[in-house]
Design brief:
Blueprint lengths: L2 H9 L4 H5 L7 E3 L2 E8 L8 H15 L4 E6 L10 H6 L5 E4 L23 H10 L2 H10 L3 E8 L6 E3 L13 E3 L2 H9 L3 E3 L6 H7 L4 E2 L4 H7 L7 E3 L9 E7 H6 L2 H35 L3 E2 L4 H17 L4 H23 L1 H12 L3
Parallel strand pairs: 2-3, 2-4, 7-8, 7-9, 10-12
Antiparallel strand pairs: 1-2, 4-11, 5-11, 6-9, 6-10
Helix pairs in contact: 3-11, 5-13, 7-12, 9-11, 13-14
């Protein structure tokens, strides 16, 4: 697809104007060191996601012995949390760190590189991305917008959400004011929910004031840090919308191509290393955090089978609705093939083993 043609059809949306108000990018070489400005979708210090930013930045500096430095900005410091894509695509910032499904209005295929409803788990995504063509497809989507993408973080399976009242049937989503980005949010809309996309820094206030009835964020650790247990007591650990959610680093393509090959590789390697490190960080912290939440009076629930059936039907309808776009269909087919290949083996090996271990030894 011709990038110029795509953009003139309004792909950048209303946030492009905000991005153009920025100063020129900080991409510059001085005293033998190159500094890139990175905008992000995360407030500074936000548990898990800001850790991913810091690890990536530090890894690039370490790998290059300080010859490539990245100046990371929190959400709102240069652009708003959801404006980072436009800033990097237009050349007003050098890089971003975000979840690419925030930008499905640019191209719906970007959702696959964070998470899609009823999609890949974190291990399945790792297999597809690094061994079955996912990385190359990420780059192909980015070329439309003059961007270069790499997944650089992973939250693992995300919780189904925090609710003021339990969900007893799919009908309970009718009119529910719910925060959920990406294609998962679109699926929830088909169940009658009033879906909102809010950045992480705005969720607590919206839930506390009643602007939201329910929300999802990430998982017990990040959600506890955000304080969601203070304003909603019913928590669903399993969700349909993000079975394994990746975070991304994205460079302006002209900036990336202007770097030395060693600096390009530093970005690629730091992103890949950050992906696995971030996954382990979330998983290591979620169990203890859930114990603390339960001790504080949070009640956990699981959605009933009929609710899961409704999630599945709505998700399939959303995904099918985008398949008229050839690139979306190409990525979707690749994801399905990768998921089938990985899950086919893992269900007979990993999953069977864990089930038997639990039966024999308990949860330990």
């Amino acid at each position: 697809m011709d990038r110029r043609s795509f953009l003139t059809k309004g792909a950048l949306g209303g946030t492009a104007a905000a991005a153009t108000a920025l100063a020129a990018p900080a991409y510059a070489a001085s005293h033998g060191s190159t500094t890139l400005t990175m905008v992000t979708s995360w407030p500074r210090g936000l548990a898990g996601v800001w850790d991913s930013v810091e690890r990536f930045v530090n890894s690039v500096a370490d790998i290059t012995d300080g010859s490539l430095m990245i100046d990371a900005k929190g959400a709102g410091e240069l652009v708003g949390a959801l404006e980072s894509f436009d800033a990097v695509s237009s050349g007003q910032a050098d890089m971003y760190h975000a979840a690419d499904y925030y930008f499905v209005n640019q191209h719906p295929a970007l959702a696959f590189f964070t998470a899609v409803p009823m999609g890949m788990s974190a291990p399945e995504m790792m297999v597809w991305y690094y061994s079955m063509g996912g990385l190359e497809l990420h780059h192909e989507v980015g070329e439309i917008f003059n961007t270069k993408h790499f997944i650089a973080g992973q939250t693992g399976a995300q919780g189904g959400g925090w609710f003021r009242n339990p969900i007893t049937s799919a009908d309970d989503f009718q009119g529910l004011k719910f925060r959920m980005p990406g294609l998962g949010g679109q699926a929830l809309s088909k169940l009658g929910a009033s879906v909102q996309t809010l950045p992480g820094g705005e969720i607590y206030q919206a839930l506390a004031t009643g602007a939201l009835d329910a929300t999802e964020w990430i998982g017990p650790w990040s959600d506890e840090k955000l304080g969601l247990q203070e304003v909603a007591k019913h928590y669903y650990p399993a969700g349909f919308h993000e079975p394994g959610a990746a975070l991304s680093v994205c460079c302006n393509l002209d900036v990336f191509n202007g770097l030395s090959r060693s600096h390009q590789r530093a970005i690629e390697i730091a992103a890949a290393e950050g992906h696995q490190a971030n996954y382990s960080l979330f998983i290591a912290n979620n169990g203890p955090a859930l114990d603390r939440l339960l001790a504080a009076g949070v009640q956990t629930h699981q959605f009933t089978d009929d609710v899961w059936d409704a999630f599945g039907a709505a998700s399939a309808e959303v995904l099918e609705g985008y398949r008229s776009d050839p690139l979306f269909a190409k990525v979707h087919d690749s994801v399905n093939a990768g998921m089938k290949a990985a899950a086919g083996w893992m269900s007979l090996s990993d999953s069977a083993y864990v089930a038997q271990r639990t039966r024999v030894l308990g949860n330990m």
